[in-house]
Amino acid sequence: MLTVGLTHFLILSAILFAIGLFGVITQRNVIKVIMCLEIMLNAVNIALIAFSQSVAPVSLTGQIFAIFVMVVAAAEVAVGIAIIFSIYRNHESIDMEKFNILKW
Fold first, then answer.
1. CA separation (Å) from 100 to 30, 53, 87?
2. First to last CA, the chain
3. Which domains are delineated in the chain?
């Protein structure tokens, strides 16, 4: 019988992180980049919980860290969407190649 172990979760986490990283590097739309960042943070959550269950199954440290990562991710999305709306109002585009407001 096949059991799902730590390596399976780490492989899943690595694949999700690679997909998210590829999206962050290649996408030009800011919304897609934020979604890919969320995929990367979820991959980290999977790895945290898998390591927590593997090292100390009784302790909930991995789950607590994952909740903190989710809170940070929610705050990141809220601030990111607010910045995107502000930039869209001024420039009528959310293409990352056209953002030059922070350049000197």
1. 14, 45, 11
2. 62
3. 6-92 (1.10.287.3510)
